[in-house]
Amino acid sequence: MSKKLLSAIFGAAIAALALSPSVFAEGQELAEMHAEMDGCEACHADGSPSADGEYEFEQCQSCHGTLDEMDAVHQPHDGMLMCADCHAPHEMNVGDKPTCDSCHDDGRTAESTLK
Ligand code: HEC
Ligand code: HEC
Ligand code: HEC
Ligand code: HEC
């Protein structure tokens, strides 16, 4: 686990003590949960979205690692997709699992792929 992710988790634990409800509350928007830890600047340069999403993608990877370093759902998309193609930070909530059928039409799921 990267140092940056560890310190972000530590920061989140402190924030969870200070804030109510917890920063990990299911049903909270993904971007909001991250912003409570590190502000909009956690993902956006100077808090403003980039035109192509590349800067944001680099920020995700600096904390979570690259697609290639993740599980069998993530690895095949290395070099193909950015995190936000599946985890839209302003549309999805903490605890939401992205589905496959917007891009694959053979009925695959994360569960069938991880088996
Ligand atoms: C977890 C990373 C993350 C955090 C934190 C985050 N954003 Fe974003 N934001 C993104 C990504 C990725 C996009 C582009 C893709 C998308 O919209 O899903 C985006 C898009 C946007 C857009 C473009 C319109 C839109 O919704 O697509 C605005 C405006 C924006 N963010 C504002 C903010 C503000 C203000 C904050 C702080 C309250 C914030 N963001 C926090 C990742 C983040
Ligand atoms: C092809 C769609 C897809 C892409 C692209 C993707 N993810 Fe995921 N992600 C998923 C799915 C589906 C799950 C739930 C199943 C699993 O654990 O793999 C998940 C789970 C996760 C989890 C664990 C959260 C939980 O549900 O327990 C994290 C953290 C995560 N992704 C981060 C990322 C990051 C960071 C990137 C970019 C480097 C990324 N993902 C790119 C689909 C995607
Ligand atoms: C500053 C570090 C940091 C950045 C940047 C960051 N994350 Fe996270 N993220 C965390 C931490 C800490 C957690 C909570 C612990 C965990 O689940 O790994 C988390 C949790 C998550 C989860 C799991 C939420 C759940 O359902 O449990 C997803 C998905 C995720 N991040 C996606 C992203 C995406 C996509 C981006 C970029 C747009 C991003 N993160 C940027 C630190 C970061
Ligand atoms: C945003 C579009 C998108 C989503 C959503 C998506 N994929 Fe993919 N996936 C791709 C692309 C692009 C490729 C690479 C081209 C190809 O091989 O079809 C790919 C390739 C793959 C591959 C390797 C080749 C193959 O077809 O088997 C696997 C495995 C895979 N995806 C699993 C999943 C799973 C599981 C999910 C749902 C959790 C998912 N994908 C969601 C776009 C997506």
UniProtKB/TrEMBL annotation:
Q: Name one Pfam family in it.
A: Cytochrom_c3_2
Alphabetical GO CC annotations of the entry are: periplasmic space
Q: Which residues form the signal peptide?
A: 1-25
Principal subcellular localisation of the protein? periplasm
Q: Name one GO molecular function term.
A: metal ion binding
Report domain Tetrahaem cytochrome positions: 33-105
Question: What does the UniProt keyword field contain?
Answer: Electron transport, Heme, Iron, Metal-binding, Periplasm, Signal, Transport
Q: Which cofactor does it need?
A: heme c
User: Where is it located?
Assistant: Periplasm
Q: What is this protein called?
A: Cytochrome c3
